[in-house]
């Protein structure tokens, strides 16, 4: 009996030291390149140590399938925002996503000295889960030194949870998040202009209120602007299914444009751009 108790003490002690070693390893690997005390926060290491399972609904961008017995409820909730709100509400606000970048993009090295950015997000009666998942994806996948602030512009929303509850929630986040309220419904462009006028960052980045940023999304955009401050850049736009919230990678062989009726369409990258890039698909496509 004494030997059994001794073994339990040894196992418990070994486990404690193992956890401590993992914590220290993660902490120093996260912070060995930090330049200021803010970036040396313990939070990234703690998040890594206490990471949740990637088996939850929607993790790694997987589809969320609603059981037959909840189909009617799903259809009713779908009408609110024109997407599967029942599925969205079951997905973690900081769900994991796959890294779908080309291998050449993953190995790209960008300048250390990049301009910081204000991320402007306009919303009107947006769902709680999709709006906050957008915010968390920006926070989790943007280098802290490059993220000056997040500016939320409320285009006269009527839903109660987008008022005091939202203000209380964003107040606790690690990066400054400001909420600007339009006095009356003004539309996307006027609301974005309001957010741009109030921005304090060196660059303004506009995002929709129901999107998710992936790993490495910000650095290439800011690097192009550092090369030429007059550049306007747009990333590859992937797809999140409105029905299952499955994350699907977009194609780097297409780019967005308008036809003569001013309808937005996806067009194949023209041969002249293929020739100019000499087969290097990691280089930007010119409009």
Characteristic key phrases:
single chain, 287 residues, alpha/beta, Spore Coat Polysaccharide Biosynthesis Protein SpsA, Chain A, four-stranded parallel β-sheet, 10 helices, 8 strands, GLT13 acetylgalactosaminyltransferase, Glyco_trans_2-like, disulfide bond, signal
Word description of this protein:
The protein is α/β, with parallel strands linked by helices and 287 residues long. Among the domains are: 110-236 and 248-253, Spore Coat Polysaccharide Biosynthesis Protein SpsA, Chain A; 254-286, no CATH class. The chain has 10 helices and 8 strands. It has helices at residues 2-31, 43-49, 71-81, 85-89, 103-106, 128-140, 164-170, 188-198, 219-227, 271-277; strands spanning 117-123, 147-154, 177-181, 203-207, 239-240, 247-248, 254-258, 264-268. The strands form 3 sheets. Strands 3-2-1-4 form a 4-stranded parallel beta sheet, sandwiched between helices. It is globular, with a radius of gyration of 22 Å. Residues 26-52 have low confidence and may be disordered.
């Amino acid at each position: 009996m004494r030997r059994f108790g001794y073994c339990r003490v040894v196992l418990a002690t070994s486990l404690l030291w193992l956890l401590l070693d993992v914590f220290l390893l993660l902490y120093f690997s996260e912070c060995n390149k930090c330049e200021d005390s803010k970036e040396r926060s313990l939070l990234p290491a703690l998040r890594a140590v206490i990471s949740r399972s990637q088996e939850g609904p929607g993790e790694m961008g997987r589809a969320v399938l609603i059981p037959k017995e909840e189909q009617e409820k799903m259809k009713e909730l779908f009408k609110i925002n024109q997407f599967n709100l029942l599925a969205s509400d079951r997905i973690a606000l900081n769900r994991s996503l796959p890294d779908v970048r080309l291998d050449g993009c993953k190995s790209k090295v960008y300048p250390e000295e990049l301009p910081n950015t204000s991320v402007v997000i306009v919303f009107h009666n947006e769902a709680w889960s999709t709006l906050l998942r957008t915010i968390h994806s920006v926070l989790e996948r943007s280098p802290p030194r490059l993220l000056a602030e997040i500016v939320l512009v409320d285009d006269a929303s009527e839903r109660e949870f987008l008022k005091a509850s939202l203000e209380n929630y964003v107040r606790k986040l690690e990066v400054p998040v400001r909420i600007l309220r339009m006095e009356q419904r003004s539309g996307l462009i006027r609301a974005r202009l309001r957010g741009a006028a109030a921005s304090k960052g060196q660059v303004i980045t506009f995002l929709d209120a129901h999107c998710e940023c992936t790993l490495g999304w910000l650095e290439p955009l800011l690097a192009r602007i550092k090369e030429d401050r007059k550049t306007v850049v747009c990333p590859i736009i992937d797809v999140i299914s409105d029905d299952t919230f499955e994350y699907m990678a977009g194609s780097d062989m297409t780019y967005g444009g308008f036809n003569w009726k001013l309808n937005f369409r996806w067009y194949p990258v023209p041969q002249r751009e293929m020739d100019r890039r000499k087969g290097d698909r990691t280089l930007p496509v010119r409009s």
